[in-house]
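Researcher: I'd like a candidate sequence for this fold, 308 residues long. If you have to choose between options at a position, lean toward the conservative one.
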């Protein structure tokens, strides 16, 4: 059993063996025209499938199995993986540069930085920057009208006006109007703006080579947590190499992550974060600071317990 359109591992196998990505469920959770149950919600279609198989004499048994299934962390509704076209940054194209720069940056502790970064680089994948969110930076792509079955056409521009100018340069679209262009609905991954931070902070994107960017880039030290080494640190190095021809920092110092005594990362959804004001009122600000410092070996996580 393989379903390339409905799971990351299945998709990898599907791409390897050139299998079709058949979309059986749409974004609303309804069965598609690819099935005899078009328009029916997935869970309602389940018993219909069993009934039809039974009528055809093809149902031999219908045992029930319990298995892990992904659920939304906010509303606890079941989730179905859904394959859709997305935008990517071709990280695999800069793999060799990153492996070289892994030795340029001084990781502290080295076991966390160099080791994890190196292992990630060996298995690097292209970065999907499409997000289906109601907010965020919109992807600056505008689609042109095409006939059914025709290859999709699009232009990339900073504004709708510039997109219209670019679209009119394409043969057959000289008279296209603004209302015929469709702005891509996806927003950029939040880390897309973050990976440009060392450069954009000093207006190095819009005003390259200005006095501030020349003075401050590259900086000396970055202090961060190891949980975002791939989301942020690695990608800042990528952006620096691509746009500035130099890594953005010389040293990366990893702090530990404060977890609860069960080892879980503290989060609002779990409600397992202590109230710092209450701790300070009970032990004093210096007592809280000292307790945290004494229990924080370099780069290792802290399992927080009030007894500290």
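Model: Candidate sequence:
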């Amino acid at each position: 059993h393989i379903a390339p359109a409905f799971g990351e591992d299945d998709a990898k196998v599907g791409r390897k063996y050139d299998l079709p990505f058949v979309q059986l469920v749409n974004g609303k959770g309804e069965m598609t025209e690819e099935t005899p149950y078009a328009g029916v919600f997935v869970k309602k279609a389940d018993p219909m499938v069993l009934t039809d198989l039974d009528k055809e004499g093809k149902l031999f048994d219908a045992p029930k199995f319990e298995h892990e299934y992904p659920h939304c962390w906010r509303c606890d509704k079941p989730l179905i993986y859904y394959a859709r076209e997305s935008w990517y940054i071709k990280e695999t194209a800069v793999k060799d540069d990153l492996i070289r720069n892994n030795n340029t940056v001084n990781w502290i502790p080295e076991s966390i930085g160099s080791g994890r970064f190196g292992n990630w680089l060996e298995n690097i994948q292209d970065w999907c920057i499409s997000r289906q969110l109601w907010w965020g930076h919109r992807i600056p792509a505008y689609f042109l009208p095409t006939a059914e079955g025709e290859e999709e056409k699009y232009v990339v521009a900073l504004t709708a006006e510039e997109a219209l100018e670019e679209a009119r340069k394409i043969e057959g679209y000289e008279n296209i109007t603004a209302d015929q262009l469709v702005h891509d609905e996806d927003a950029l991954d939040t880390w897309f703006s973050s990976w440009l931070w060392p450069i954009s902070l000093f207006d190095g994107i819009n005003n390259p080579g200005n006095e501030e960017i020349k003075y401050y880039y590259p900086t000396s030290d970055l202090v961060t947590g190891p949980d975002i080494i791939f989301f942020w640190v690695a990608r800042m190095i990528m952006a620096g190499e691509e746009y500035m021809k130099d890594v953005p920092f010389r040293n990366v110092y990893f702090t530990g992550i404060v977890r609860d005594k069960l080892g879980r990362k503290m989060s609002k959804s779990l409600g397992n974060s202590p109230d710092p004001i209450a701790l300070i009122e009970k032990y004093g600000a210096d007592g809280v600071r000292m307790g945290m410092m004494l229990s924080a070996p370099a780069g290792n996580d802290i399992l927080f317990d009030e007894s500290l």
